[in-house]
Design goal:
- This protein has 660 residues and is α+β, with helices and mostly antiparallel strands.
- It has three domains: 9-192, 2-Layer Sandwich (Heat Shock Protein 90), CATH 3.30.565.10; 205-329, Ribosomal Protein S5, domain 2; 343-497 and 613-655, formyl-coa transferase, domain 3 (2-Layer Sandwich), CATH 3.30.1540.20.
- The protein is built from 22 helices and 24 strands.
- The longest helix has 19 residues, at 311-329.
C-alpha cells in the first residue's frame, strides 16, 4: 500500500485553523466579518477572559435556515462566490468558506439563527468540529454564535497564548479597524461584562474616530478627500501636533476592508515628510474605493493584505493629497489650546497696548540696505537675508523706535552710513493706534497720511502664513522671543534657519543645472576597500548633487568642485557628509534621485544652521524672522520639530489670572 493518505476532514480543519485562527482576535475578526456580510446594522461582541473562555457575537442580519446552519460549518462552503469569475470582483469580506470550519475544529461552538422573528430558529452545537446537536429554538431575527474554550483540544497552541490583557488588546485593535471600515453599523464591545467600546452607527467616520481615539484627538483631525479616474478616497488625518509612537494608528481601508499595505502607509508618511519628528507617526483613517477588478484580496490567509493593479498611480495620488491637505491645515503650535476651547465663554479684557500696521509695502522695501551692508551680521547666515525696514516697530515698551536710535544701534559703520542716508520719511506710514479716552473707554484713532501722487499703490499680495513679528530678546541664546498684537511667540532659531536653508538647498538641487565652484585646493577622500567599490557605482549620484568627483587611484577619490552655494567654511565637512550619506543609502534610494537630493538638503541645512547658545543681534533676529516668513512651510523644521510656539494675549492673561 502507498504511504500517501488523504487526511480526514476533522484533522484537515485543525491544520487549516493554524493559518486562519491565530489567536482569539482572529475568531472575532472572522465572525464579525460574517455578520457584516449578512447586512447587519447592529453587532454586539461579548468577550470573557481575553476570548479564551468565551466569544459571543450577536447580530441582527439576514439569519439562516436549518440547512444553511449545518452547511456553514462544512469546509469550503460559502454563499459569497459561485464561479471562478467571482474571484476577480470580490465585494464581500469573507469568501473562502474556511473560517467557521476551522474555528469549530478547535473550540466548542453554539450557533443560533433565524431568518425572521416570527419563525422558529435553529440551534446547532459543535464540539471539536463534530456536530453534537441540531434543534429548533425560539429566537429573534439574526444570528448569535458563541465560541467557548478556544484551543481546548490543541494544548500546544493554548500554551503559547499571551496574557489576557494582550489578547483583549488585539481584539480591541481588530474591532477598531472594523468599526472604522463600517461607521454605519452600531458596534458594542464588552470584556467580562464591562463595556469597552460603543458606537452609534450614524455613518459619520469622525464620530467613530472620536469613540476610538477620544474627543480631544478627534478635534485635531483634518478631513481629506480626492479622486482620480480609477480611485476615490476620503477620511481624516491628524494634525502634526497629534502623533503616536508606532505605525499601528495608520489605517487604510479598501472597498470596506481593512488592508495592511506597506506602500499605502509609506505614501501617507511621505505626505507628512519634514512635518513629523523622527520616530513619531500620525493617526489616519482613509477609505479608498476602486473597481474590485483592480484589487486582489486573495493573497493572504487572513485576507489582511492585497495587491493593486495600478499601485503606483494610487500611491502617487494619495501622497500628493496628504501633502496638500496638511499644507492647508498647518498652523503655529498653540500649547494652551485646551484651555482656549473655553474662550467663547470668557470675555477677554481690553488691551490698550498701541497697535501698528506692520505690513511692508513696496515703497518701504525700496529702502532696504545694500547687500554689503549686511555682511557684518553673521558668518553663519550665508544666504542673502533681507534686512528689516528701518521703521519696523519695537513692542518692548509700546513705543516706536526713533530713526536716530536705530542708527546708533547699528553694528557696522557701513550700515550706519546707509541708515543716515536712507531714513524713510514719516509720510509713508499708516499708523493705527488704540488710545484710552478720559471716560476709560478704548477708542481707535487712525492717522493716514497719503503718499506722494507719483507713488503707485502696490497690488494686494498673499499674506504669509506667519505674521510679522518684532523680536524682543533671546532665551539661553537658543530661542527668540517675539511679539505682535496677537501675543507672544517663541521661535527655535536653529529650527527656523534649518527650514530656510532646506528650501534654499532644495531649489538649488532641483534646478536643471547645478553650478559648481572650483576649489583652490582639491579635497581628497580616502575609503576602505568596500566603500571604494560602492562609491565607484554612485559617482553619478554625487555629480547630480553638484560635486565634481572622480577616482584618484587605489582607494582615493578627489573632489575638485562643489556647488557654489555651499556655506562658507563648511565645504569640507559637507562633502564628507554627502559622500558618507550616499554610501549608506540603499539601492532603491539611489534610484530615486529626488529623495537623495531631499535628504542631502536636510543634511546640509542642519550642518549650516546656527546652533544653540549663539546670541544674535537685533538685526540678525529681525532678518531671520523676515526670511522665515517667506518659506513655504514655516511651521516645522525638515526633521518635523516645531519652529514657532504662540501664546495669545488671552493665554498670558489666563496664566497670570488676569481673566478667570
Amino acid at each position: 500500500m502507498g504511504r500517501i493518505k488523504v487526511l480526514d476532514e476533522r484533522l484537515a480543519n485543525m491544520i487549516a485553523a493554524g493559518e486562519v485562527v491565530e489567536r482569539p482576535a482572529s475568531v472575532v475578526k472572522e465572525l464579525v466579518e460574517n455578520a457584516i456580510d449578512a447586512q447587519a446594522t447592529k453587532i454586539e461582541i461579548h468577550v470573557e477572559e481575553g476570548g479564551l473562555q468565551t466569544i459571543r457575537i450577536v447580530d441582527n442580519g439576514l439569519g439562516m435556515d436549518r440547512d444553511d446552519c449545518t452547511a456553514a460549518f462544512e469546509r469550503h462552503a460559502t454563499s459569497k462566490i459561485r464561479t471562478s469569475r467571482d474571484l476577480f470582483q470580490i465585494k464581500s469580506l469573507g469568501f473562502r468558506g474556511e473560517a467557521l470550519a476551522s474555528i469549530a475544529s478547535v473550540s466548542r461552538v453554539e450557533l443560533v439563527s433565524s431568518e425572521s422573528s416570527s419563525q422558529v430558529g435553529t440551534r446547532v452545537l459543535i464540539e471539536g468540529g463534530q456536530i453534537q446537536q441540531i434543534a429548533d429554538v425560539a429566537t429573534v431575527k439574526g444570528t448569535t454564535i458563541t465560541v467557548a474554550d478556544l484551543f481546548y483540544n490543541t494544548p500546544a497552541r493554548l500554551k503559547y497564548m499571551k496574557s489576557i490583557a494582550t489578547e483583549i488588546g488585539h481584539i480591541s485593535d481588530f474591532v477598531n479597524r472594523l468599526i472604522l471600515t463600517h461607521p454605519d453599523i452600531a458596534f458594542t464591545l464588552t470584556h467580562n461584562g464591562k463595556n469597552i467600546l460603543q458606537t452609534s452607527g450614524d455613518g459619520k467616520l469622525l464620530h467613530v474616530m472620536a469613540a476610538i481615539y477620544g474627543v480631544q484627538a478627534a478635534k485635531m483631525l483634518l478631513p481629506i478627500s480626492g479622486e482620480t479616474l480609477d480611485f476615490r478616497w476620503s477620511g481624516f488625518l491628524s494634525k502634526t501636533e497629534l502623533t503616536r509612537a508606532n505605525r499601528s494608528y495608520l489605517t487604510t481601508l479598501v472597498n470596506g476592508r481593512y488592508i495592511r499595505s506597506y506602500s499605502l502607509a509609506n505614501a501617507i508618511l511621505r505626505g507628512y515628510h519634514t512635518l513629523l519628528p523622527v520616530g513619531r507617526y500620525p493617526i489616519t483613517a482613509i477609505q479608498i474605493e476602486m473597481d474590485p477588478i483592480l484589487v486582489d484580496v486573495n493573497v493572504h490567509p487572513a485576507k489582511l493584505e492585497a495587491r493593486f493593479s495600478k499601485e503606483d498611480e494610487l500611491v502617487a495620488a494619495l501622497e500628493k493629497s496628504v501633502q496638500s491637505t496638511l499644507r492647508a491645515g498647518l498652523k503655529i503650535v498653540q500649547p494652551l489650546q485646551a484651555e482656549r476651547l473655553h474662550k467663547a465663554t470668557v470675555k477677554t479684557a481690553q488691551v490698550t497696548q498701541p497697535q501698528f500696521d506692520l505690513t511692508m509695502n513696496k515703497q518701504q522695501a525700496a529702502y532696504l540696505p545694500p547687500a554689503d551692508a549686511m555682511q557684518s551680521m553673521s558668518s553663519t547666515l550665508p544666504v542673502a537675508i533681507p534686512a528689516p525696514s528701518v521703521h519696523s516697530r519695537s513692542f518692548s515698551d509700546g513705543q516706536a523706535i526713533r530713526p536716530e536710535e536705530r542708527i546708533a544701534s547699528a553694528d557696522s559703520p557701513r550700515l550706519r552710513e546707509w541708515l543716515v542716508k536712507e531714513t524713510v520719511p514719516e509720510n509713508v506710514h499708516h499708523v493705527r493706534q488704540a488710545e484710552v479716552s478720559a471716560s476709560g473707554q478704548t477708542a481707535t484713532v487712525e492717522r493716514d497720511i497719503k503718499p506722494s501722487e507719483d507713488i503707485v499703490a502696490p497690488p494686494p499680495e498673499v499674506s504669509p502664513a506667519v505674521p510679522e513679528l518684532a523680536p524682543v530678546g533671546q532665551v539661553h541664546g537658543t530661542y527668540i522671543v517675539a511679539q505682535n498684537e496677537q501675543g507672544m511667540y517663541l521661535i527655535d532659531q536653529h529650527a527656523a534657519q534649518e527650514r530656510i536653508f532646506y528650501e534654499f538647498f532644495m531649489r538649488k538641487l532641483e534646478s536643471e543645472s547645478v553650478s559648481s565652484q572650483l576649489m583652490l585646493f582639491p579635497h581628497t577622500v580616502e575609503c576602505t576597500v568596500a566603500e571604494s567599490e560602492k562609491l565607484h557605482k554612485k559617482l553619478d549620484v554625487l555629480r547630480s548633487l553638484g560635486l565634481d568627483i572622480e577616482w584618484f587611484g587605489n582607494r582615493t577619490f578627489i573632489v575638485r568642485a562643489h556647488p557654489q552655494w555651499f556655506p562658507e567654511g563648511s565645504e569640507a565637512d559637507l562633502i564628507e557628509e554627502l559622500i558618507q550619506f550616499v554610501l549608506e543609502a540603499g539601492e532603491q534610494e539611489q534610484a530615486d534621485i529626488r529623495r537623495m537630493r531631499e535628504k542631502a538638503a536636510i543634511l546640509m541645512s542642519c550642518k549650516a544652521s546656527i546652533k544653540a547658545n549663539r546670541y544674535l543681534t537685533q538685526l540678525e533676529m529681525e532678518a531671520l524672522l523676515a526670511q522665515l516668513r517667506e518659506t513655504t512651510s514655516p511651521f516645522t523644521c525638515p526633521h518635523g520639530r516645531p519652529i514657532i510656539i504662540h501664546f495669545t494675549t488671552y493665554d498670558l492673561e489666563k496664566m497670570f489670572k488676569r481673566v478667570m
